[in-house]
Amino acid sequence: MTASLLAAPLTLPCGQRIENRILKSAMSEGLGSAEHGPTAAHARLYARWARGGLGLSITGNIMIDGRALGEPGNVVVQDAQHLDALKDWATAGRGSGTRLWAQLNHPGKQAPRFLNKETVAPSAVGFGPQLSSAFAVPRALEEAEILEIIARFGRTAAVLREAGFDGVQIHGAHGYLVSQFLSPHHNRREDSWGGSLENRARFVHEVYAEIRRQVGPDFPIGIKINSADFQKGGFTEQESAEVIAGLAQEGIDLVEVSGGTYEAPAMTGRAMKESTRAREGYFLSFVKGLRQSVTVPLAVTGGFRTAEGLEAALAEGAADMVGLARTIAVQPDFAAQVLAGQRPVSAIRRLSTGVKALDAVAFLDVTWFEAQLARMGEGKEPLPELSEWRSLGHTLWSQGVQAFRMRRA
Ligand SMILES: Cc1cc2nc3c(=O)[nH]c(=O)nc-3n(C[C@H](O)[C@H](O)[C@H](O)COP(=O)(O)O)c2cc1C
After folding, report:
1. Domain boundaries in the chain?
2. Are 22 and 339 a contacting pair, CB within 8 Å?
3. What is the CATH T-level fold of the domain 3-347, as seen in this structure?
């Protein structure tokens, strides 16, 4: 296969056509206003990406409930309050040939103490010693609250459709609320929302059905989902394949495969074996297996660094689309270069201040990239050679010391 397959359009089950096979995976921007609305920086950042040749651009996670925040600077959409700013963002981010989708999230227990009064989850299961200082033991949700959260996913999607976004993606990966429901470790419920896989998957099915009810049959709904949690007692590859098959049957438009949680951050390669990290595409072997049993469009994200790697993910017949995150935080034209037949190589490098103790609290894997997004939000170009120390300075200046309290992708 050549770059021309990456350039081939893709038609989704709902009928939407995506002009090529490269997607920008969600990256939380940290650029929201004090009222958690989008800002002019969002519009400038996504306009920059829309000039970079992407077939599909997916926003950072947008929270569906202002009482449940995942990171500082989150955008929250729970009603039409920010409609005008959302329209500006949507207009700017939809380039010629680039579709713009919004990622919807509820963090569940992965909601840091310093941002939230109380956290909720399927069950009152706390984190281990490494994370328990940053994250409280959650309160188990009442059934009425579960139904209310499902309704919120639908309402948020309807507002985003009205604002002009081309589609939505449910964040079902990385240990947030949807992922917590799927996991037998985090979900210990004994009612119809826990126990068997059918019960644990009820929440994601209901979220999908409610969004579909609110946005109609012709509007794309995708999901980002874990291949596995990479955690003892967590959601497994076999269970993931079953849930994906069920969602495909119900009409989901695009399944983006990732993996891991805050406790086992496989999504950025940190919790992977060295051999897997070294290979491009952390979750590609799972997607290859999945392809045998489903026909729904599949995307795979995590660890792609070269044009050859992107092509190989499609050439092997596994994925229909390939996702990029960190690379296009520093090389926003990467997709355009690949599509033009060039051979760009990702400028992503191992980040370190050189001081181990500082690295442990600096979360450079997130904050260094946020500094790049902030540059594009100001209308500047990203700076691949940005020093780790300067990025720390940027984060301290823009968000204060709070920013370092707990940051994960
Ligand atoms: C700064 C930053 C923020 C992220 N925010 C999100 C997010 O909001 N939603 C999400 O699904 N993934 C998020 N991710 C994970 C990426 O989408 C992607 O899965 C991961 O970085 C692996 O892809 P890559 O190797 O191309 O970077 C984030 C990653 C980074 C670096």
Report:
1. 3-347
2. yes
3. TIM Barrel (3.20.20)
